[in-house]
Specification:
- The complex is a heterodimer of chains A (113) and B (104).
- Chain A has a domain of 31 residues.
- Chain A starts with 32 loop residues before the first helix and ends in a 27-residue tail after the last helix.
- Chain A is elongated, with a radius of gyration of 43 Å.
- With 113 residues, chain A is mainly α.
- With 104 residues, chain B is mainly α.
- Chain B is globular, with a radius of gyration of 15 Å.
- Chain B has one domain.
- Chain B is built from five helices and no strands.
- Classes of the chains: A mainly alpha (113), B mainly alpha (104).
- At the A-B interface, helix 1 and helix 2 of A face helix 1, helix 2 and helix 3 of B.
- Chain B: One of its GO terms (cellular component) is mitochondrial inner membrane.
Chain lengths: 113, 104
């Protein structure tokens, strides 16, 4: 016989028993699929509109930049032609004549300009 | 032949076209008609370079400050001219007042 001093207390259910467990299915408030579709579609529509309007503006800007750059193309091409003619060159292609890239060189034809 | 940067040429595009527009159009017409050989359009290309050099010389002499501001703005905007409308307007005013009367 062991002389334990602690008095053992049996673990018993509470008086009156355990309350009932809520195991029934509980669903959230249902959202119709059409509403979800409309919401997502509206968001995508707004984004698409923003994208395309910005794209149109961007393309217009690029066209304007290209037009302004093309205004100086005669100067660049003429300088390139004169620099090419002022340099020793020969036609090294057998298909058609294509001007090779030449570095900056003082043009003899315009030395006194 | 003096060399100018792309920003400088783009900055003064309207001015040089106002003075040398006919020469540029003649050169473009010649290149369109006669092909890529530079010898065939040597007279026109020489005229183009001469005219643009003449205009640029006057611009550098009279409108150096406005040209420098335009060039700085264009170079800071990755060679874009649309964000530099104010500087270009100031340059055009200087060009119309000091450089254009010598040619037009």
């Amino acid at each position: 016989m062991v002389g334990y001093r602690q008095k053992w207390v049996q673990d018993l259910p509470p008086a009156g028993g355990f309350p009932k467990l809520k195991y029934a299915r509980t669903s959230t408030s249902p959202i119709p699929g059409a509403y979800i579709f409309a919401g997502v579609f509206s968001i995508m529509a707004v984004g698409t509109y923003i994208f395309f309007s910005d794209k149109v503006e961007r393309n217009a800007r690029e066209e304007e930049e290209k037009r302004r750059l093309s205004m100086i193309l005669p100067i660049l091409q003429a300088e390139n032609d004169i620099n090419f003619l002022a340099s020793p060159h020969q036609n090294v292609y057998f298909t058609r004549w294509m001007p090779p890239q030449t570095g900056k060189r003082a043009a003899a034809l315009l030395r006194d300009l | 032949m003096e060399s100018f940067t792309r920003a400088e040429l783009v900055a003064q595009r309207d001015g040089v076209w106002a003075v040398c527009g006919e020469v540029f159009e003649a050169y473009e017409k010649c290149r369109m008609e006669k092909g890529s050989d530079p010898e065939l359009c040597l007279r026109e290309s020489t005229a183009v370079v001469g005219c643009s050099q003449k205009v640029m010389r006057e611009i550098v002499k009279n409108c150096q400050k406005e040209l420098n501001e335009s060039v700085k703005c264009i170079e800071e905007n990755n060679m874009r001219t649309i964000p530099c409308e104010e500087e270009n307007k100031a340059f055009n005013e200087c060009f119309d007042k000091l450089v254009a009367p010598k040619f037009l």
